[in-house]
Design brief:
single chain; 354 residues; alpha/beta; Rossmann fold; 53% helix
Length: 354
């Protein structure tokens, strides 16, 4: 989700160490050939990658006293059109720019294939249309299959001048170490609640109560806070998932099994179902985390403040050992998903084992 900021500012909330680094790289003309943008979802990795690409490709970017794109040239206008498409939910691939190319994993696929990577490499090897850089972003780069990763590595070993590749990942362990060693690593960290709180009020008109609730609920992820604020249906679903998990502790196994039936949409592909299940499990992990915090009287750190009373009941029912066991159960469930176990079986194992 695009981040709203003041004109001539990097579109990133928090993580100023990263924007300062990129700022200096542009001003000093020390742009690398490959970058890894690493961190959890909803921190602005892809948004920053797009803006960095726009900086590189701006037709008036010769004056590096200011690293920001002009916003007026043909290249900048194409980026602006794409930003509007992303904001409206259109496919990110719709932008046509001869020197910018985006590759991401298809929703119904587990991996990015070698065919897709080779096509990107072919495009980036051609001459620049504007005589400047050619930039390729690989979103979900931790989902490159082995053959695709090897093809990319070969290109990185023999880089073309003025070609920049940005790998956007959540799990660096899934990338070959040889790719990591040839890239500049930018680590995105969760943003402090106070920064998100102020941002929601200043840029999105949130009330103080909304900003307090969402800055906690988002766990340091600004883009998630914005989505929760601007999409009431998503906010409702998020809360419903947390409340569903809380209710498991007062239900029998049959009631739990019946409840998870609503989480699996038969219309979704297997990969879409796996992604949705993983995100649900992450919400449930937040509830267990809150239970452990309340267990140690750390009320001010609770994520799901709206359900603090109900979560306290879980603390009264479960021992510390039992809460830790629940946390390990959910972590194991995510591993099962990565190993291609059926999402329904993963969810059923959770509710039966609680």
């Amino acid at each position: 989700m695009p981040i709203a900021t003041k004109k001539n500012e990097w579109p990133l909330i928090g993580n100023t160490h990263l924007t300062q680094f990129l700022d200096a790289s542009l001003k000093n003309d020390q742009v690398g050939g490959s970058y890894i943008f690493l961190g959890p979802d909803n921190l602005g990795k892809t948004t920053l990658a797009h803006f960095f690409a726009q900086c590189l490709l701006c037709e008036k970017a010769g004056n590096r006293l200011s690293p920001y794109p002009c916003g007026e040239c043909r290249s900048c206008q194409q980026f602006q059109n794409q930003k509007q498409s992303r904001a409206s939910g259109d496919d990110e691939k719709q932008m046509v720019h001869g020197d910018f190319h985006l590759l991401k994993r298809a929703k119904d696929k587990k991996f990015i294939s070698v065919v897709e990577v080779r096509e990107l490499i072919k495009i980036l090897s051609m001459s620049s249309f504007l005589g400047k850089y050619k930039v390729g972003i690989i979103k979900h780069a931790d989902k490159l299959n082995l053959e695709a990763a090897n093809a990319l590595l070969k290109t990185m070993e023999e880089p073309n001048l003025n070609v920049v590749i940005i790998l956007v990942v959540t799990d660096i362990e899934s990338l070959p170490k040889t790719i990591v060693s040839r890239s500049q690593l930018l680590q995105f960290r969760p943003v402090p609640n106070g920064i998100i709180y102020d941002y929601l009020i200043d840029f999105h008109g949130a009330s103080r109560s909304q900003a307090k609730d969402l800055s906690r609920l988002s766990l340091g992820r600004p883009a998630l806070a914005i989505k929760l604020l601007e999409t009431p249906e998503f906010y409702g679903q998020f809360k419903a998932q947390a409340k569903m998990f809380i209710s498991f502790f007062s239900q029998n196994i049959n009631e739990r099994l019946q409840a998870i039936g609503s989480l699996i949409d038969k219309k979704n592909s297997s990969q879409e179902a796996a992604i949705k299940t993983r995100r649900t499990i992450e919400v449930w992990e937040g509830v267990v985390r809150d239970s452990l915090l309340l267990n140690y009287n750390l009320d001010n750190l609770v994520q799901h403040e709206f359900a603090a009373a109900e979560i306290t009941q879980i603390v009264n029912q479960k021992s510390t050992h039992g809460l830790i066991r629940a946390a390990k159960l959910l972590e194991q469930a995510k591993k099962y998903l990565r190993d291609n176990v059926s999402p329904r079986l993963v969810l059923e194992n959770i509710v039966v084992s609680l």
